């Protein structure tokens, strides 16, 4: 299915001294990412934000149609750049054979021009929006509560929540999606905070018949539903019922397991075999990930230790893996030109990771998994070792015979020594080893 990259992290333009220049920076890196095997870039919210406390990351939308061309809310450019720079970036993304995903913040707005008194509860709120683009104005009838819907799913902070049952707002959301796909050039969406509105809205956006350059476009989409396995699976069933363009969801439950693997002493690798984890229960719609912009301290810290163990897992198993710019570029986990980091694992995913997976062995400290492969992609075996003091291996049945298994990627917190090739037996048995607190990915050679 490819490898998505979240091409930003929280306050990345400020952290890297690129305020107003993030689009241009990504433009300069796109060709390298394509060569590494990345197939899609998830971009941060592109619209002009409310910017109530200065330039923001965009999760507080003000003018959806200002992508950095109108002088409002503190300036012309967004935190990331201008509309022209964004369009140039998307052009480069397409020229390199990649896709671009827009971050859609549809639940709430911020930075209104003035307050209004709500007709139903008589509460004064910041609800009058008169954006300089002249498109998609909003007032008190655009937000909850109103005559169309008094009950709201979930609110986000103290920002007013859009009421999508208002026909003007519903039409505005569809018009926005069409504009982003057909005019700006996006190929898909990441839906922010989907707990805040009904799945019917996403289904409507996904099923719309888009055209660009005379060709039909079916946008890919993934939803942020930060919840349990059962809640996410139920949401997917509701969102995708009778839909011909289903939406995916981030596998938050797997992410918590991966954090425990990396950061908790004595983690039992058998916990990774749980059948209810989203990537196992819903492999076609699960988007697996290790960290994202919302894990930045407090109750939701980043993974602190040995993240490559987690990346070895998501880049060899089912699901659509999403790798994180901060890990790749800032923390130096790409390790380009070596068999030890994210670049090598991305190659493994694109060249070998196909067919269903089966767990060959699992105990407290050793996990062996085989992808059975397909024509042209011969599959792989992942050996994951959580023992900090020694190499671990087991002899298991793979069903292959007359060849050998050779390491394609490996890493350890303690040694970067290359694992040895392992021959098949005539009975289809082979032995697989992983270094201490590390992993090895093997490919089959006939």
Give an overview of the whole structure:
- This protein has 446 residues and is an alpha/beta fold.
- The protein folds into 2 domains: 4-250, Glycosidases (TIM Barrel), CATH 3.20.20.80; 357-445, Golgi alpha-mannosidase II (Immunoglobulin-like).
- The chain has helices at 12-15, 22-36, 83-95, 167-184, 199-207, 229-240, 252-263, 278-281, 307-314, 325-330, 342-351, and strands spanning 4-6, 40-42, 48-49, 61-63, 99-104, 114-117, 124-128, 188-191, 210-212, 215-217, 220-223, 248-250, 286-289, 320-324, 357-362, 366-371, 380-385, 392-397, 404-412, 422-423, 429-434, 438-445.
- Strands 1-2-5-8-11-12-13-14 form an 8-stranded parallel barrel.
- α7 (252-263) runs antiparallel to α9 (307-314).
- The radius of gyration is 23 Å and the shape is elongated.
Layout of helices and strands, plus pairs?
Layout lengths: L3 E3 L5 H4 L6 H15 L3 E3 L5 E2 L11 E3 L19 H13 L3 E6 L9 E4 L6 E5 L38 H18 L3 E4 L7 H9 L2 E3 L2 E3 L2 E4 L5 H12 L7 E3 L1 H12 L14 H4 L4 E4 L17 H8 L5 E5 H6 L11 H10 L5 E6 L3 E6 L8 E6 L6 E6 L6 E9 L9 E2 L5 E6 L3 E8 L1
Parallel strand pairs: 1-2, 1-14, 2-5, 5-8, 8-11, 11-12, 12-13, 13-14
Antiparallel strand pairs: 3-4, 6-7, 9-10, 15-16, 16-17, 17-22, 18-21, 19-20, 19-22
Helix pairs in contact: 2-3, 5-6, 7-9
